[in-house]
Amino acid sequence: MQNLDSEVAFASKYISQVAKLVEEKFEEHLPPLQDAPQKLHEAMRYSMFAGGKRLRPVLAYASFELFNGKDDSIWCATSALEMLHTFSLIHDDLPSIDNDDFRRGKKTAHIKFGEATAILAGDALCILAFELIAKTGNVKVIQTLARALGTYGMIGGEITDVEYEGKEANLEIVNYIHYHKTAALIEASLVVGAQLAKASEQDIQAIQEFGKAIGLAFQIVDDILDIVSVTEVLGKDAGSDVERGKATYPAVIGLEASKIKARELYDEAISILEKIPYDTTLFKSIAAYIITRVN
After folding, report:
1. Is 225 helix (H, G, I), strand (E, B) or coil?
2. Is the confidence at residue 293, as pLDDT, over 90?
3. Which of 2, 47, 121, 229 has its CA 20 to 30 A from that of 87?
4. How is 11-30 classified by DSSP, letter by letter?
5. Which residues does 275 contact at the CB level (< 8 Å), separation at least 6?
6. Which of 66, 81, 68 is nearest to 273 (CA)?
7. 41 vs 29, 105, 123, 157, 239, CA distance in Å?
């Protein structure tokens, strides 16, 4: 594959710039620390401001820009998307699921605040996200996010992931888990931006297909990094997938074949972009960023 350094640098700069704008809106949309219940609001804010790439809100914003969105509705969507992602991470880290002590290099919410507060902080972020997204007045957007989160999306992937811990899984099961648990919300982020920009159904379909490809690639790279990286670089417990017997690409087809699959998904994503009659240079760079990332 060709050298992607310049594309990765371009995407990194864009993601960093938009992430700053996104985070400024968190202050507007999150409950103030001084409001009761203070401990719950502190836990919500702790998890939201614990770092991260803000990839999902950035993808929504990029899609909104691509399809010439003009109003401020996108900011409710960007905050909502990060709240939903954070809610999923808080619950994913719980002792009853992955039992992780660190996330993004910091103590996980249940370690910092206790399990009960962490559960309720995740719940509160999920509910607040839908309050925010409802302010857009766009029912299709609400449906897109609900579908991406529910039993046909993230939660469906999560329960299957839990059920297959320590069990032998085939590639069909791993693809099911990866699409639903990870790719569905990445895909939905792009679709939401397009829907808010009032893109055509054809363009929405194309950006959705692109989202599925890069979403699956994102999770496969995660699988690979869990094996080849270290906790200090990842910002979360390295080697935990192997330790818990998770259903992953390397576990089923091996490390080298997993790297090849990630590159194939990158190529697929690039070819999908040819269906979109706008300048998709940024999205090509984002795809390169996803398959070359180190954390």
Report:
1. helix
2. no
3. 229
4. HHHHHHHHHHHHHHHHHHHS
5. 202, 206, 209
6. 66
7. 12, 21, 12, 28, 32
- pLDDT over 70 at 194, yes or no: yes
Question: Do residues 268 and 213 make contact, with C-beta atoms less than 8 angstroms apart?
Answer: yes
Q: Do the Cβ atoms of 81 and 48 come closer than 8 Å?
A: no
Cα–Cα nearest to 220, from 257, 188, 172: 257
The candidate with the shortest Cα–Cα distance to 121, out of 58, 27, 236, 38, is 38
For residues 207 and 191, give the distance between their C-alpha atoms in angstroms, rounded to a whole number. 7
Residue whose C-alpha is closest to residue 204's, from 104, 279, 272, 122:
272
What's the CATH code of the domain at 220? 1.10.600.10
Q: How far apart are CA 57 and CA 41, in angstroms?
A: 21
Q: How confident is the model at residue 226 (pLDDT cuts 50, 70, 90)?
A: confident
What are the DSSP E strand ranges found in 15-154? 102-103, 106-107
Structural domain harbouring 150 = 5-292
Task: Indicate the number of domains in the chain.
Answer: 1
Cα–Cα distance measured from residue 150 to residue 136, given in angstroms and rounded to the nearest whole number: 21
Record the pTM.
0.94
